[in-house]
């Protein structure tokens, strides 16, 4: 998904050395470049929100309000 020469700052050098503790699990501190799963999950949630917003917004204002409200709700 990205150029392989673009490494993140945590993996350049001697590998992944730093971790953070999240609810008792050690999670490696790596960047998200090249990661597709968070984007797929965000788009899936965005689709659910959009379908529900379209049910509420009147058809006359649909083209203006639906995208705006969908992005605002999902960004929260």
Taken as a percent bin, the fraction of beta residues is 5-15%
Order of helices and strands: EEHH
Q: Number of DSSP helices?
A: 2
| Radius of gyration, in angstroms, nearest whole number | 19 Å
The average pLDDT score comes to: 80
Based on helices, strands and strand pairing, what is the structural class?
Answer: mainly alpha
Main sheet: strands, sense, barrel = 2 strands, antiparallel
Number of strands: 2
Terminal residue distance:
26 Å
Describe the structure.
This protein folds into 2 domains: 32 residues, no CATH class; 40 residues. It has 2 helices and 2 strands, in the order E-E-H-H. A two-stranded antiparallel ribbon has the order 1-2. Strand 1 and strand 2 form a beta hairpin. The longest helix has 20 residues. It is elongated. The two termini are 26 Å apart.
Could you give the topology of this structure?
Elements lengths: L18 E4 L2 E4 L8 H20 L5 H14 L1
Antiparallel strand pairs: 1-2
Helix pairs in contact: 1-2
